[in-house]
Amino acid sequence: MLLIYFNIFAQNSIKNNFTQKKIDRHIDYIDKKVTEYETQLNESYAAEDKANLKEKIELMTYSHYLNDHKTK
Is 55 part of any domain? Predict the structure, then answer.
């Protein structure tokens, strides 16, 4: 006769149970993080646009400067 013994432990700790309050809190946390991430992306895009705009202005003024000196 073969007997197999194994223990089953309950997985019913407080950490493993979700209440509506915990779910709402976690959803609020995720929404807040997504909003922060979107804000950071928008700021970085704005900074890139400013840097690109400054670079374009510098190139335009430099090319204008070169064109003026070539014609003289």
Answer: yes
Model pTM score: 0.50
pLDDT of 21-57, one tens digit each?
999 999 999 999 999 999 998 888 877 777 777 777 7
Number of domains in the chain: 1
Output b/e per residue, 45-56; b: 16+ Cβ within 10 A. Answer: eeeeeeeeeeee
Which amino acid belongs to residue 35? T
Question: What distance lies between CA 48 and its chain's CA centroid?
Answer: 16
Distance of CA 67 to the CA centre of its chain: 44
The parent domain of residue 64 ranges over 27-71
Q: Which two tokens stand for residue 1?
A: 């006769």
